[in-house]
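FW: tagging you since you asked about this chain on Friday. Here's the raw sequence from the shared folder, copied in full. Didn't touch anything.
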Amino acid sequence: MKKWIGAALALLLVVSLAGCGAASQKPAQVDGDRAPGTTSLTITLPTWTGYGPLFLAKDKGFFAKHGLDVKLTVVQGLAERKQALAGNQVQGMATAQDVQVTLAAAGLPIKVVWALDESAGGDGILAKDDIKSVADLKGKTVALEVGSTSHLFLLTALQQAGLSDQDVKIAQMSAADAGAAFVSGKVDAAVTWEPWLSKAVAQKKGHVLLSSQDLPGIIVDSVSLRSDFVAAHPEAVQGFVAALAEAMDYYKANPDEAAALMAKGLGIEVKEFTDTAQGLHFFDAAGNKAFFGTPEKPGGLYATTEKAAAFYKDQKLIDTAPQAAAVIDPTFVNKL
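HL: got it, structure written out here
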């Protein structure tokens, strides 16, 4: 299993370095038909409630207000998103912070510039009713996306139970497919997120064995941008975080309208969005400043990053643990 992961990460390194070498000098696209100074920026992301503020900032015109033409591309597969970022087909990615660590470890220079949310029950492990504890997963088939946050979550849970990934049978698939596979009875357990956690329980297909509420501080979502984009367009990056800060203020002031717009952007029902959002803590400007901290006094995001890096290296999923300071750029949130 680990050999397969190592090979996959090695391949990603090759793709990443090739992408950096071929495209690092390529400037952000500026469309001559748009207002002078408008900078184009493409962000890739999967379907997840925590990424809703990106759609809100776009829909309400906050990105445009700050001179940005932002395109949001929804791609469910993590490998495809990584390849797009490595090849400069996109300039940023909304994903879990531990995935940002794997990007940096694979040799792709990125800078995390905004924290979106922290999971507080929105992610978890679904299991059949006869599986009462994490220890009971031994010998069982668990569906998850290898090398993703779901993998980190399972490994952490297994480690606390005195087990490792060698004690379970891992079925590789996306988090959404893992949820669907569990509900259809194809696997014993699945590491996934809402709405699959609620769907499985509502349909009496099993129970939530463990959720991110039980393991806080592990699953945090953030937005990273390619380092070459950040270096070439600091004003655009400042506008990007300012727009997200405005989106969060709008969300707090107009929760119903904002929820409807974010659900539409994500392609999900409003009820699904609001139900899932209950398991999340969204970061606004003040929350980002506190979570990022400063280079002199780092915030909690640094500890989350270092924990993920150390854990993945200990599990031999990455060769080198990147320093949190090399991955995180607190400059922009601290100028808000």
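FW: The two ends are 44 Å apart (CA to CA).
HL: agreed, and The chain has a mean pLDDT of 89.
FW: great, closing this out.
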